[in-house]
UniProtKB/TrEMBL annotation:
Domain TauD/TfdA-like: 52-350
InterPro entries per the UniProt record, alphabetical: AlphaKG_dependent_hydroxylases, TauD-like_sf, TauD/TfdA-like
Keywords: Oxidoreductase
A Pfam entry, by short name: TauD
Superkingdom in the source lineage: Eukaryota
UniProt-recorded name of the protein: TauD/TfdA-like domain-containing protein
Ranges in coiled-coil conformation: none
Species, as recorded: Sporothrix bragantina
């Protein structure tokens, strides 16, 4: 068990935090009264020392998420220095695109640039991919007038609740895993511009101008297999590509042995439901395609089960009450996050990292 004994900073209880396996989720860490850091340099030096002792690793493993408050982090440059002080092994290299992001500096990106009225449902970051970060930092640079909190839940608690309330679903996920599907139009499809991507630009790195369509398909399939362990399904009617990603939906955290609900199931389903895209051809009100995730044998996951999963998630969720300058340190293996709509101007920055934590087989 990790404790924080420190002259300048202390843990604090965040109102509304949950208790998961006897630990606060999330844990708050703030600067003690009268101990304010004079500048970002002194704060970084202090964090760096705690990281060296392993204290931060221990606390994150116990709590899943830590909210840092009262540190002199004011902009992207401070945030970039702050996150580097945690001594994580390396910055995470993203493969494939999970959303619209802009690089702010070497370590920091915008969280997502989709319109402020779009709700994101709970997901593990890159939980639909075979390549995902272990740790995320969020920095609240600017808090909007209304809304814009970041919902978090403990994926460990969610696993426990699902096992209790939907045991057959958990068993089916354990037995079969899932297949996620993503829609890529062909480049010359008039819809491609609206959708924002096409298979040629996303995976056609090796395609030459005079390649036949069959040859182009083979080259794309090779990229999918080698880089993403994914399969392609070509659609005769319009030349679109479905990318199929077979993944486990449940995993076990190596350091604690705890099972966790790690996937993108809720994110995909919630958005499809909001866009009334729950039946073929799965085209939504937003003009985009929302292909359903199925069990690993191709059988459908019943929508009433997924409705219940979203309900259970909401019942254990926690809304981060952002204040300007807050930094959340999130273990992606143990925490799912979401996004609430907002009114006004908001800036939330993100930094993704790999750590020493591993998954072992569920
Ligand atoms: Fe995300």
């Amino acid at each position: 068990m990790a404790d924080l004994v420190d002259a300048r900073i202390e843990t604090f209880a965040i109102p509304g935090a949950r208790v998961v396996h006897g630990k606060a989720f999330p844990l708050g860490i703030r600067v003690k009264g009268g101990q304010a850091f004079e500048d970002i340099d002194s704060a970084v030096a202090h964090i760096d020392q705690l990281a060296e002792q392993g204290t931060l690793d221990d606390l994150l493993r116990d709590h899943g998420t830590i909210l840092f408050r009262g540190f002199p982090v004011t902009d992207a440059s401070d945030f970039s220095r702050f996150v580097q002080a945690f001594r994580l092994p390396q910055q995470h290299q993203e493969v494939g695109l999970s959303g619209i992001r802009t690089m702010v500096n070497g370590f920091v990106k915008t969280a997502n640039e989709e319109p402020s009225d779009v709700k994101f449902y709970y997901h593990s970051e890159y939980g639909r991919s075979a390549h995902f970060p272990n740790v995320l930092f969020f920095f609240s640079e600017k808090v909007p007038e209304k809304g814009g909190q970041t919902p978090l839940l403990s994926s460990i608690e969610l696993y426990d609740e699902l096992k209790k309330q939907l045991p057959d679903f958990v068993q089916a996920l354990a037995d079969k895993g899932v297949i996620g599907r993503q829609y890529f139009p062909s480049k010359d499809d008039p819809e491609a511009a609206h959708i924002g991507w096409n298979w040629h630009d996303s995976y056609g790195f090796d395609i030459k101008e005079d390649d036949s369509i069959e040859k182009q398909h083979r080259k794309v399939e090779t990229v999918l297999r080698d880089r993403l362990q994914a399969d392609g399904e070509w659609q005769d009617k319009n030349g679109a590509l479905y990318v199929l990603q077979r993944l486990p939906a449940l995993r076990r955290v190596a350091s604690t042995g705890k099972p966790t609900f790690f996937n993108g199931l809720m994110g995909v389903y919630g958005r499809a439901r909001d866009n009334q895209a729950l039946s073929p051809p799965y085209k939504g009100l937003d003009g985009k395609y929302h292909l359903p995730t199925t069990y690993g044998d191709g059988s459908p996951i019943p929508y009433d089960t997924l409705d219940k999963v979203l309900e259970i998630a909401d019942s254990i969720g926690f809304l981060v009450p952002w204040q300007e300058g807050d930094v959340a340190y999130i273990d992606n293996y143990m925490t799912q996050h979401a996004r609430t709509p907002w009114v006004g101007e908001r800036s939330l920055l993100v930094s993704l990292w790999d750590s020493k934590e591993k998954f072992v087989k569920y």
